[in-house]
Specification:
Layout: H1 5-14, E1 22-27, H2 34-46, E2 53-55, H3 65-71, H4 85-97, E3 103-109, E4 114-122, E5 128-133, E6 152-157, H5 160-173, H6 178-197, E7 205-208
Parallel strand pairs: 1-5, 1-6, 2-5, 6-7
Antiparallel strand pairs: 3-4
Length: 220
């Protein structure tokens, strides 16, 4: 039977049954609907009461453009080696340890296409942290440090034509012309998506964003 959104809510709640802080990861290719799913989970779980679920995207660990220029990697921004994977793993470990008052995580400004330090506060009452990104299940380099810090990882997938359509639209929304957006999606983004797809079998659960309910229709 297909996984319903209510099933996902129940599964997420179960991660915190013992009241210890849990970290749930949502992986998937660019444009698959990870952020839409994560944001809806957080919104529904928090409801109208005191927030107890936090959202910490992986995108805050993009290397800044100045550093990508220095390394000669800016033309493939979004590839695994254009992130601070070790820093991301260290933050997840700190969140899991649950020993600090407030933990500040970096965010990512889509208009600027740059990481923003200290943009996301995670308060001590947050019992569940939802994090999402492309490479949570990647088994190479510093990315191998990420999976041990996650209680579960769900893999969000979407039909390829719809994923590409959404991704082109997102690049256009944030400033690329149509031809430039298509070229980026069919080049850099496609290579990254193919790599992410190889990690699918390592997930605890596969969630189809094509189904009404779990993934929604906004953007990754």
């Amino acid at each position: 039977m297909p996984v319903t959104f209510d099933d996902l809510l129940a599964r997420a709640r179960d991660l915190t049954a013992d009241r210890r802080r849990a970290v749930l990861g949502i992986a998937g290719s660019p444009g698959a609907g990870k952020t839409t799913l994560a944001e809806r989970l957080v919104r529904e779980l928090n409801g109208s009461g005191r927030p107890w679920v936090a959202h910490v995207p992986m995108d805050g660990f993009h290397l800044a453009d100045a550093e990508l220029d220095r390394l000669g990697r800016r033309d493939r921004k979004g590839a695994p080696d254009t992130f601070d994977a070790a820093g991301y793993a260290a933050l997840l470990r700190r969140l899991h340890e649950d020993g600090d008052d407030v933990v500040y995580a970096p965010g990512f400004e889509r208009v600027l296409e740059q990481p923003i330090a200290g943009a996301i506060p995670v308060p001590p009452e947050a019992r569940l942290v939802v994090t999402e990104g492309n490479y949570l299940l990647l088994d190479s380099g510093a990315w191998t440090r990420v999976r041990p810090e996650l209680d579960e990882v769900w893999f969000c997938e979407l039909s390829e034509p719809e994923r590409i359509r959404r991704l082109v639209a997102r690049h256009e929304e944030f400033g690329k012309g149509h031809e430039e957006a298509v070229a980026w999606v069919m080049g850099t983004d496609r290579r990254n998506a193919e790599l992410v797809a190889t990690t699918r079998d390592r997930a605890d659960l596969v969630v189809s964003a094509d189904q009404p309910g779990p993934g929604g229709t906004r953007r990754d």
